[in-house]
Every structure is written in structure tokens, then in C-alpha cells.
Amino acid sequence: AQSVSQHNHHVILSEAASLELGCNYSYGGTVNLFWYVQYPGQHLQLLLKYFSGDPLVKGIKGFEAEFIKSKFSFNLRKPSVQWSDTAEYFCAVMGDSNYQLIWGAGTKLIIKP
Amino acid sequence: DAGVTQSPTHLIKTRGQQVTLRCSPKSGHDTVSWYQQALGQGPQFIFQYYEEEERQRGNFPDRFSGHQFPNYSSELNVNALLLGDSALYLCASSLGVGQPQHFGDGTRLSIL
Lengths: 113, 112
Fold this sequence. Notes:
The structure holds two protein chains of two kinds. Chain A is mainly β. Chain A has strands spanning 3-6, 10-14, 19-21, 23-26, 31-38, 45-50, 56-58, 64-68, 73-78, 87-95, 102-103, 107-112. Chain A has no helices and twelve strands. In chain A, strands 2, 5, 6, 10, 11 and 12 form a six-stranded mixed β-sheet that branches. The model of chain A has no long low-confidence stretch (mean pLDDT 93). By secondary structure, chain B is mainly beta. Helix content of chain B is 0%, strand content 51%. In chain B, strands 2, 4, 5, 6, 9, 10 and 11 form a seven-stranded mixed β-sheet that branches. Chain B has a four-stranded antiparallel β-sheet with strand order 1-3-8-7, with no helix packed on it. Chains A and B meet through strand 5, strand 6, strand 10 and strand 11 of A and strand 5 and strand 10 of B.
């Protein structure tokens, strides 16, 4: 069965620190990969996506993620976080023969000013 | 350009009742997916509608049913409500299979 695992449920960082949020998935075929973000009081928004091609994808607000096929991973990174990055981050996977998004449990990120 | 809109925002029901939640997709989108998000968890896929038909279904009982209308809007119906159905119900729309989904704010359903 497909599954997505996010390594940390809560992460606390200071402003300007570097960020890496882990995401591993379990699926036997080709996948589309997504990171979504939910800012406090707002709906889920797409941060970035990977469909094919360059495994290093760049998203909005300075975020990037790297797809490592051999490790079934799609980790999210940002070199220098800001207070406004405080949010919950979700990794999601969609198989190529599947229409449903399979989600991780989310990581709550708190940035201390 | 209107995003995904859901109604109502909040709903309180008692066990055994039935509920209908509504969703209008983002303008130009033809595919609607429904998710259930329990507290502290990621969304769980319920089903997806395209061309007024259920295209795929997640691991949810038949108490959960849906409908898509010719204007692409959609409804989620839940019968015989259980306490465990208390959750945030999210609607997402997209244009085509595998494309990024745009989410509404959700309907918070509480079962007493």
C-alpha cells in the first residue's frame, strides 16, 4: 500500500536557520510529488511539485525540494527561514496510475523571531 | 478569480444523522476531490469526481457518497453519522489527472 512518512511532527527553528523537512514514500511505480503548506488560518497551498525532469525543484518563497528516487525521498529545504514561514507542511504523493493524493501526517514548523 | 469555496464552514450534528457538504471548484477546473482530515493527521482521500462520475474512491465506507453536477460543483453526503466522522472535510479541484489540486478552507464537522 502507498504511504508517506514525514520524519518530524514538530520543528522549532530560529530566524535565518536552515531548514530541511524529511519525506519518504512507499510506492512501486512512477510518482508525482508535492509539498503543500498551510499557514495559520489559511487553506492548503501548493509549495512545489515534481513530475519529471530535474530532480531539484524550486517552489515559492525560496523553498526547494530534491527527489532522490533511490531513497524514495522528497525532502524540503530552505537555506534561511523567516518568521513568516511558521506553518504546517505536508508532503503528498500521487502514483502515475492513481488519482488520489496520499499525504504525510504533516510537520508543524515554528520559527522563533 | 474565485478559488475553491466550501459550505458550510462549520456544522454540528448528532450520531445517526445525515449531512451534506458542498463545494464549488476553482474557475476552469473540472475535477473535484474530497478529503477527510482528522486532528493532527494529514488528509485522507475519500473520492474524486470527474464528468459527474466517481473516478476513484479511497478506503471509506458506503455511508460516504458524493455527486458532481454539470457545472462541476460537488456534494459530499455522509449517512448514519458516527462520532469518528468528526473531522475537517476538504474539497480540492484540479484541471486534469495528476495536476496540482487547489484546496478550499474546509468544513469542520462535529458529531455529538
